[in-house]
Amino acid sequence: MAGKLNKQKLAKGTRTCAGCPIPVIVRQILAQTDAPIAASMATGCLEVTTTIYPDNAWGISSVHNAFENAATTISGVETAHKILAKKGKLQSGAEKFKFVAFGGDGGTYDIGFQSLSGAVERRHNFLYVCYDNGAYQNTGNQRSSATPEGVKTETTPLGKETPRKDMMKIMAGHNMPYLAQAAVHNLSDLVVKAKKAFETKGPSFLLVFSPCVPGWGYSPKDTIRISELAFETNFWPLYEIENGKYKITAKPTVIKPVQEFLKTQKRFDHLLKDEQAVKEIQDNVDNGWRELNEMSIE
Amino acid sequence: MKKEKTKNYIIKPMSGGEAAAEALRQIGIEVMASYPITPQSPIIETFSKMVADGRVNAETINVESEHSAMSACVGSAVAGAKTATASNSQGLALMSEIVYVASGLRLPILMAITNRALSAPISIHCDHSDSMMVRDSGWIQIYTENAQEFYEFLILAFKIASRKEISLPIMVMADGFISTHQLEKVAIFDDKAIADFIGEYNAPYDFLNPQKPILVGPFSVQDSHFEFKLSQQKAIERVPAIFKEEAKNFKKITGKDYKFFEEYRLKDANTAIVVMNSTAGTAKEVVDKLRDKGEKVGLLKPHLFRPFPYKEIAEALKKVKKIAVLDRSMSFGANPPLFAEINQSLAGTRIPIQKYVFGLGGRAIFERQIEQVFADLKKGKIDDKIKYIQ
Predict the structure, then answer these.
(1) CA B108, CA B102: separation in Å to the nearest integer?
(2) CA distances (Å), A47 to each of A24, A57, A127, A174, B292, in order?
(3) A/B interface, count of CB pairs below 8 Å
């Protein structure tokens, strides 16, 4: 069932780089509802690799407006749907539409942040998905506010000096009904969260860890392993916040030192010899994990 | 004796802002996404109250910025709802990125603009630098003199914009505060007459079709972008013919014969002023006064600024000996925008045209100053420099 739906909703063989997890994430999420879906997408990797005219990789109605307004655009679609339904102007089967917006971390944490915050505050009925590859990868790997501290990018050649934004905390501050952090290596966790998000009345938010082959500097075959290491080192914990309640959805059986994750990617190369820097990253990861555990229900 | 027709309107005292909201209600706007800005707020406040009172079946989206106002309008129009917003000045500047997206995606969004100066320095008062800033954005632009015209042209505008042959966004301008806030007697036509005129709305995309999904807003590269832009140009070139057709239909309701521009005592005029929006009202007073003294003066007031009716304006002005064009905005380092178009219309003729700039940031213009313009024209004082009416 899921396979069939995936094929219909986002075609395979898009123009993403080899080893890019974005299409996998999108297909898995879209497969989690049987209702028709209308999507908006921010300018970025997903958009440029799936919509080059006259080709169209999408098997659902989708709209690209601009970089910073995927959330607002889908809020306009959702509102139009609402009034057209009220006036009895929808065609049969269209009453059940679900709405989803996709953006990268640039389109979510940075330039599209105001648009997202506004749409969530207005309580539109939509799912926002951020595929987080930790920098502006579509323009060739420049730092974003999702870039972790220390990471070398084209615009932070000496390493980023400030920590990344805690987007989950910020979105949680909107008191929205459902939000979750997921990662591409654990699809069974991702699909449960996507299903919950689609079933939520009002806005929902998924932040999905999405390793980037050229930006992070690793071999295409290692995408899933790197995502897994981010999880196993607690660099990227998997959890959800449902009606304000935090819950860790998967825990590593053995917690690995963060170095195991760092050493797999060129973006951290310059840090590995710096014991102090690695220790700081480890401390931050440990503190984050402790805090998350304190906030979570069992 | 001819039997008098039953009145199809009621006269109400209202501001231009309220009149604009009446137009949105009668058109049956279904989604209004907006962000408040002086002097546009009476429009969105009045419309919001109409929605709350159940006088119109619509949804409002109170967004967090003008950028989002236009972004939500794009989403709504893509999804097939009759969509409108209102803005001006800084708001229009902020949304300008998406103003271009709206025309590129061929969405018949209606926008009421209450003209206001652009910063810096900040000013809340009228000039036309805001709408002139987006004159090349692919939107149809119509300028209006007063509350009555603002109301009527909003209705006519939506009809033109939403015709299948056009499918382009349209903005209708009225002078901030001058036309939007003062109370005027406004004739509001019957709801049913306007509803019949607007007719069935055909959305540009069948987006919410669960059987046949579509993509709106693809990525275009070197082999297609040019063609997309050409199709926009062809669409806006079709506007004059559709304008004429729909103005004729609209006349059956309003009795008014709207053209691309208004000619006021222009037929036998030796000297003429070209000016847009509310100042045309003041200029008409001056024309009447001078005509009473036997002077052959006239006025041309453009409504349709995009697409610009070069040929028709050339025809209307061809017998005039001297012309003054009064712009309410600047194009720094170049000719002011209205002058540039009039000058282009009359290229090849030897009619001297004096360029003036007036009214920046709401600076009032008085009858005596317009009289002086006619007096200067009469004396033949015409040169290449911009004259400023301060």
Answers:
(1) 8
(2) 14, 10, 17, 27, 66
(3) 170
User: Which amino acid would we find at residue A47?
Assistant: E
For the record, the structure tokens of A279 come out as 């220790």
- Is the separation of the CB atoms in B156 and B170 below 8 Å? no
Q: Which CA distances in Å does B162 have to A97, A211, B165?
A: 25, 45, 8
Q: How far, in whole angstroms, is CA A91 from its chain's centroid?
A: 32
A-chain residues within 8 Å CB-CB of B79?
Answer: 38, 76-77, 80-81, 84
Complete DSSP assignment for B19-34? HHHHHHHHHT--EEEE
For chain B, which ranges sit under pLDDT 70? 1-5
Å from A132 to nearest chain B CA? Answer: 22
CA B366-B86-B158 angle, 5° bins: 100
Give CA separation, A244 vs A161, A166, A189, B150, in Å: 32, 16, 19, 49
Which pLDDT score is estimated for A1? 36
Instruction: Please write the tens of the pLDDT for every residue from A55-76.
Output: 999 999 999 999 999 999 999 9
**Ranges of each domain in chain A:** 22-295
Q: What is the CA radius of gyration of chain A?
A: 19
Nearest-CB residue to A61 (from B65, B74, B214)? B214
ipTM above 0.90, yes or no: yes
DSSP SS3 for B113: strand
| Contact at CB, A65 and B71, closer than 8 angstroms | yes
Give the pLDDT of residue B2. 58
- What is the pLDDT at residue A297? 86
- In sequence order, what DSSP letters do the residues of A193-242 get, joined into one string? HHHHHHH-SS-EEEEEE---HHHHT--GGGHHHHHHHHHHTTSS-EEEEE
**What is the SS3 assignment for A111?**
coil
Which DSSP string corresponds to B261-306? Answer: EEEES-TT-SEEEEE-TTHHHHHHHHHHHHHHTT--EEEEEE-EEE
What would the pLDDT profile of A228-267 be if each residue is shown by its tens digit?
A: 999 999 999 999 999 999 999 999 999 999 999 999 999 9
Q: Which CATH architecture has domain A22-295?
A: 3-Layer(aba) Sandwich (3.40)
Task: Write down the pLDDT at residue B381.
Answer: 74
List A residues 64-103 in contact with B (Cβ-Cβ < 8 A): 64-66, 68-69, 72-84, 86-87, 89-91, 93-94, 96-97
- Count of CB atoms within 10 A of residue B208's CB? 27
Strands in A97-177 per DSSP E: 98-104, 127-132
* Spatial distance between the Cα atoms of B162 and B233, rounded to a whole number of angstroms: 16
Nearest 5°: phi and psi at A34? -90, -10
pLDDT value at position A6? Answer: 45
Give the whole-angstrom CA distance, residue B367 versus residue B271: 16
